[in-house]
Amino acid sequence: MQQHKETPVDQEWFEQLTQILDNHKDKNRSLTLVALDLTPKEREHEHAEFLRDREYCPDFRPRRTNIEDIESKEKDLIDLKERIEQEEENGVIKLTYRWKINTMIAFLRLLKASIKGDMGRFRRYSHFLYGAPDPDVQSFCLDKASDVIKESLQSDDPEMVSAAEKLREHLLNAQPSHREKHDAFVEIQPPSDQLIAETRKKVHELHADLLPEGLDPSEEEISPEQTAQYFQEALKSAGADDWKVIINPNRTGMIVKPSTQEIHIPAGKKQSMQRVLELIFHEIGAHVTRYLKGKESNLKLLSIGLDRYIKGEEGVGALFESMAKPESKPVKDFGKFGRHLAISLATGVNHDPYNFREVYETMEAYYYLDELRKGKEHEAAKEKAAKRTWITCQRVYKGTHSDKPGTCFTKDIVYREGEIGTWLLLNEKEPDSLSQLTLGKWDHTNARHWWILSQTGVLPEDQAKE
Questions:
Q1: Fewer CB within 10 A of the terminal residue: the chain, N end or C end?
Q2: Would you state the pLDDT for residue 28?
Q3: Contacts for 366-369 with beta carbons within 8 Å, 24 or more apart?
Q4: How far is CA 19 from the centre of its chain?
Q5: What pLDDT sits at residue 21?
């Protein structure tokens, strides 16, 4: 006999919220990060101007988004929030939707601030949505950079020594003084070998069905078309039969779009099979799986995400990706070092904020040294470093004019800080808790989210964090 499935506790409000999203889907992309993107031609123009003029501050503000459409969507969201406040009797649901809608409204206002050039408001909304860099994580980044510099200064290659000295000079003004200032300083360490081994085993058990037949991690390069084929097979194995993989000439990186049930991969970019495996674990094992589990949950909002869920989302994705790497490559550090360092420099965590040119030159010095340490010849290392630097700076200054020191788009701190938070949780609760992390789109580093899940029956009540 088939068991009757209970109606989700937020069914009515979830339908009304998604109706707002559907009503505006064709008009603009203003509730997604894509709304802040420039076209490839616009990015190329800003890059050329920056290289031509040392005083030029690239303008990464969107050109194609209509403020009237944004304000229409904002009004719809405010109206829905007021209806929920007046009609919803369940206090937990009322709070959960208030917090979620507030963040959606905040993103719209960040977008308006970007279009209007109000960088002060942009900065405040960015910090509200994604936070500011954690000073302890910044210290961890600077300690890593310092270790790299010390090792490189011992090299027999004069070019590597020179590169290390240049990076050290760029980072002189970024050394934090907060270690002596606050008692809550946390010394961040990579996870233990035992925890890594246990977690790797659990992750592979969790995602065993995602591995396409015939996937050989030793194969060096495959085409975007082959990558798309492997992703489509993995989606089918995950139960996402309706999802499509699209090769997108306008993308520089991969993106998952639950609203349209699509994964976009960049055209013209070949990947190693090992990298494809890592991306399957990240994009499908984390992002798609959490969407599917949220969709079937007692709290349907988990399919599109609780408020500020992104830190947990990317933390899980980064962990799954790292566990797909070969065992011969130990986990010595957490991901997205460059993005976190660049945002820390741009915001000025414990020092005066760097301007765009200073951030660019510091990151170029770091990436150049990194490429030399990987064994690249000098010219090839410079070329690769310049490319990596521009990509990082585009992300860090997305939506800004980059002419106001202290203002940047802080979203990308969530990758590194989310991964660190995920490992800390596993160290506390052990790898058996991994299945909880795929119950939907929520932030397991946020005690308030544990409370929401326990109060709505998604987790047992004794699972709530204090």
A1: N
A2: 46
A3: 366/145, 366/167, 366/170, 366/338, 366/341, 367/338, 367/392, 368/163, 369/148, 369/149, 369/152, 369/160, 369/163, 369/164, 369/167
A4: 26
A5: 86
| pLDDT given at position 186 | 62
Which residue type, as a one-letter code, is found at position 355? N
Q: Which residue has the tokens 């990317």?
A: 314
Both tokens of residue 370?
A: 């990194």
**Whole-number average pLDDT of the chain:** 89
Q: What is the largest CA-CA distance in the chain?
A: 75
Using CA atoms, how far residue 401 sits from 114, 343, 350, 359, 404, in Å, is 8, 15, 23, 14, 7
Return the top range by mean pLDDT from 153-167, 258-272, 429-443. Answer: 153-167
pLDDT in tens, 128-146: 999 999 998 988 889 899 9
Tokens of 318: 């980064």
Instruction: Tell me the C-alpha distance between 38 and 349, whole Å.
Output: 28
